[in-house]
Design brief:
By secondary structure, this protein is α+β, with helices and mostly antiparallel strands. The protein has one domain. It is about 30% helix and about 35% strand. β3 and β4 form a beta hairpin.
């Protein structure tokens, strides 16, 4: 019985922030990325100008392949390029993730709301998006990358 309570507490903590109304008003969002068949990471050569890496989250929506794509570049926007403010990258501890759990969304969020709502509503007011790349965990620390976002969604006629 004790294990059941612990498990329920753990699951409720993970799904706590999966509500779009809470996410819409955040200025910083963290996307939990775990490499799999539907979550694909591509790291480009260091001497490649422009983009450094891509993170793609794929899902099948209405019998079409849809995706959200997050990309790391030297400057996340033209405005930031003009002022010389580069993309942020750092290693964080699990305690940092616990403190910011309300700001972390998982692939379940994207599956629940779809590409359109995820891209056009959830990220509408967001100023900064970070990818939490759990596949590159080192010495108990997890890297986060500031990213920009694009989607496969096309507005209908």
């Amino acid at each position: 019985m004790k294990n059941l309570y612990i498990m329920l507490l753990f699951v409720s903590g993970i799904t706590y922030c999966q509500n779009i109304s809470l996410i819409k008003n955040l200025d910083t969002i963290y996307v939990d990325f775990k490499e799999s068949a539907t979550q694909i990471k591509t790291v480009l050569p260091k001497d490649n100008p422009g983009f450094k890496r891509w993170y793609v989250i794929k899902f099948n929506e209405k019998n079409k392949d849809e995706y959200l794509q997050f990309y790391v570049s030297e400057y996340p926007s033209t405005t930031r390029r003009e002022i010389g403010n580069k993309s942020d990258f750092r290693f964080i501890k699990k305690s940092y993730l616990r403190k910011n759990k309300k700001r972390i969304i998982s692939v379940n969020f994207f599956k629940k709301y779809g590409v359109f709502m995820s891209y056009y509503e959830a990220f509408e007011k967001c100023k900064v998006i970070y990818i939490i790349d759990r596949s590159e965990k080192k010495n108990g620390q997890i890297p986060i990358y500031e990213v920009s976002i694009s989607s496969s969604y096309m507005m209908g006629e």
